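Field reference: sequence -> structure
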Amino acid sequence: MESIIFSLIYQISIVLIFSTFIFLGGLLSGASAQILPQSKSQNSDAATITAPSSTPSLVKNPYGIRITNPTTGDQVLINGTDYFDSTGKRLSVEGFSISNNGNLTNCDVSIVTNSIFPYQSANGSGPLGVKDYSKWNYKFNSKYANLHEGSNKITSKLACEGGTAKAYYSVNVTGTNFTGTFPKSATNLALASENLKSTSQNNLSSSVTDLASEDLALPVTGIEIDSPSNGEVINIDKPIHINGSSEYPNNYDCEVLLADGNTAGVIAPTSANQSNFKKTNPGGINGTSDYRSWSIVLEPGLNNLKNGSQSITAKLQCYSPLSSVKFAKVNVITNTSKPLELKTMDVSIDKTGQGANQKIVIGVNDAITNDPLANSEITGSINDNPFSGTTDSLGKYSVTIPSSVIDSGATIDVSVSTSVDGYKIKKTSTTFEGSPAVTDETTPRTSDTDNRDIPNNEEDLADKIFDDVQKQLSEQGINIPLPFG
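Structure field:
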């Protein structure tokens, strides 16, 4: 009986253990579909995660990157830390990037070879300058040269939006030790000679073979401004008619926008709808969405064009099925019949000198910079006595106050009007207290002055005579009050 019970327990245990293994196997198989965090030692581009087709809600990455040179399968000749392609040119990793919003100036491109980190920064070579990674390149140097004989993996990375948005693309090339001769397909003897100055060149071949590049199914797009032409002079007081043409595949959704003037940010908008860009009018044969021919009219006062050298930039923006952005730019010379905005000036009026040598000094300066304004035209009057002249190199002009005004002792009223090219006319006035000239007994007087001063002098002289006579009488003991009666 005991043997029967023991046999049943043993069989039940076997069934439970087997069921447990099946259950755990199911859990593990389900867990294998999870994406686990990568450790620091893992290569972030080692695998590509593809979303299941049953998840249509996932949004595709709006950014993309490609390596156009070298291509997978290409041969790289290795001479120490110097790398050359099969044509004898020094190896340059080149590529392009795309984005849905057309802006690649806020991104970075870097490469890594054979998972030897860190990533090395590439150089932007797009039409907008070194920060435009719509096109890019990287050249190896002695500090970073990780290619070897055999298979090599070169990976490019596009990082945008502060590094939160990324895209990767890799190629595999074959490294071959350089023996001093290039394959028969070498195409450029001159470049090979320049790049291999320290290497024997006796066996270099000059035969020419064209190498086929990888077909990346890129859209053929382009844009031109047909009028105005580069360097043309235009009047911004009148409507400016701008016409152009563009090229793109029939199945592409594109439009043309235009920016005018030299304002910051015109050439590299943060989005396709940046306010600096205005949508043009389509004029293609296929209707209102055909921008293969386009035009726009810039109305006076409603554009960003200033007087002088200005730029006009057209942008072809394609949205789908692939993003593509192309630019065209012309520089024009703009002029206007309207007068230039005049500057303002400050005018000072001061009185200097003593006696008969009193002067009015006028100073003219730029109101913003305070620089003196030489050769300013001065007109004015001192108590209705007119004067005129020009300022000197220090912006000063002085005029002597007429003697009649000084002698009158009346207040001195000065009014001034100044004018100089490029400045608004300035009119100003002020008043000074009169200060007549002081004279002594030996100074000749004019008839007016004599007539005015004689009564006072006679009275003073009589007082002096009375004082002298009274003094002499007192000394003799005679005390007679004077004057008599």
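Note: Confidence is low (pLDDT under 50) at residues 14-59, 185-217, 264-274, 440-456.
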